[in-house]
Structure formats: C-alpha cells, structure tokens
Amino acid sequence: MLNVPSPNPQRGWSYLGAESTARLKNPDHAHLTDEKEHFDVGPPDDTAYPNKWMEDEFPGFRQLSEHFYDLCQTLCLQIMAAMELGCGLTPGTLQDRCRPAASELRYNHYPRVSLGKLYDGLTRRGWPHTDFGLITLLFQDTQGGLQYEDRAKPGTFLPLMCESEDEVAVNISDTFQRWSNDSIPAGVHQVWLPPLADEHLAQKDHVLPERKSNVFFFKAHRNALVGALPDFVSETRPSRYENITALEFHKRMTDVLIRNALVVPNADS
C-alpha cells in the first residue's frame, strides 16, 4: 500500500528520503536528505485524517498501535500535569489544550548505510532539528546515533545512548517553546554516527547496521492556539509568537519538512 506524504498530518508510510529535517533549520537546504523511512499513526478515532492500516499484511498491528498510542498519550498528559506544577500554572492550563488528542505515533526505520554516503555531506540519518509538537517521547534501539545539542555549547552534540529498549527519552518541542514564550526552549537533536571503533571511522565502505526507533509526537489539540500563554507574557517580555492554531502551525512546518510530496521514487502506485 502506497501512502504519499502531504502537508496535512501524515498518515501511513513515508518513503526513504521523503523528509529533509535540515529544512526545519534552513528551508534552502532541500537538497539535504534524511536516510530513513517511517510509518505514521494518528488518534485512533480520527475522522478528519484517518489512519491507513495494512491489516492483511500485518494482522494485529492496528490493535497494538492503538493501544501504544493511548499509553503514550496518557503518559504525556501526566507530564503536562507535572509541567503545570513546575511552572506554577493553574491545573489544567496545559492538559486542557491537549484534548481531544491530535498527537502522532511514528515507527522509524533507518536502513543499513555506508559511512561514505554519510560523509558526502548530503545525507544524514537525521539532521539537527527540533520537533514541532509539545514534547516528544523517543523509544530507540541500542544501536546508538541519537545526539542532543549541549545548550551551553551550541553546535556541540552529545550522544544519548540507551542500555535497554524500554528506556524513553523526553524532549521539549517547538509548541512548548511557543507557549512558554521562549522560557523553555525546544531541544535540538540529530541522528548521526553511533559509537565506532577508530579503525572504522575512516573506512568509507564500513556499513552501519539498520536502526529503529518509535517516536510519539505529543501535540496540542488542533484548534488550540499556539502563541505565548498569558502566564509567560509581561510588559518586559511581550509575546514573541503569532497566535495561530496548532493545526495551522503543524501544516506550515510539515510543508517545510516534506521535500516533495508529489514524486515517489521507485514505488508502484
């Protein structure tokens, strides 16, 4: 089943190289590609942007995904409750803006790739970028490669390894930065090289094994406004963001992210 990505909320399969995370930092970098493919799932009861399942090929996949989605959504709402407490906000200030659900679950697959392809300067498994929801839950395998930017040293990235596949990383995303009026900035991250022995680093024909991760992009409900919240605005710190809806912001960012929604290489329709 072929699902072509579009500026609307993504559903189903997006082909290898469909996204260019480099464009999120600089729209002129459309020539830089991501060496990954992914399958996206929205709210189980979404009628505006229905999910696209492959029930004949993968029996049980829908049931598993919907259950996992609900678990992640519940966890994120609990984190929002903790954020309300930590930021001194009235209970419900953040949580109420996240119902009904509009989050997205993504299954990432990074195929085997040679160092030579990554060293050519045009391809990475994921370029430095921020996500555009509220927070992101990331479940990764033990292959390595995920790196976060050191806030104290911009441009310096530190590896985030996991010892077991049941660990979860949580990072702040763009919408929370907007709500907090830049008080809580989004985390810049990338997927680059895993730990490698010195003798392999210079070998362009060395092949990295495939990598997999599951990502949950927790988002505000579609009609919620994503300008700065009043609690973070003052005379000395005026609002820095346009007060558009979460859906409009999502569409704008996805339109930047998708390299070309009309051309699908090496695929049969």
Break the fold down into its secondary structure elements and pairings:
Blueprint: E1 12-14, H1 22-25, E2 33-34, E3 37-41, H2 61-87, E4 104-110, E5 113-114, H3 115-119, E6 123-124, E7 126-129, E8 135-140, E9 146-149, E10 157-159, E11 169-172, H4 174-179, E12 189-191, H5 198-201, E13 207-208, E14 211-218, H6 246-257
Parallel strand pairs: 2-6
Antiparallel strand pairs: 1-3, 3-4, 4-14, 5-13, 7-12, 8-11, 8-14, 9-10, 9-12
Question: The CATH topology is what?
Answer: Jelly Rolls
Cα Rg: 19 Å
> What is the count of DSSP helices, taking H or I runs of 4+ residues?
6
Q: Gap between N and C termini, in Å?
A: 8 Å
Which stretches are poorly predicted, pLDDT < 50 over at least 5 residues?
1-5, 260-269
The CATH class name reads Mainly Beta
Instruction: Please give the domain count.
Output: 1
User: Biggest β-sheet, characterized?
Assistant: 6 strands, antiparallel
The CATH homologous superfamily is termed: B-lactam Antibiotic, Isopenicillin N Synthase, Chain
What is the N-to-C succession of helices and strands?
Answer: EHEEHEEHEEEEEEHEHEEH
Mean pLDDT: 89
Q: What is the annotated CATH architecture?
A: Sandwich
Enumerate the strands of the largest sheet in spatial order, edge to edge or round the barrel. 1-3-4-14-8-11
Instruction: Tell how many strands the DSSP assignment holds.
Output: 14
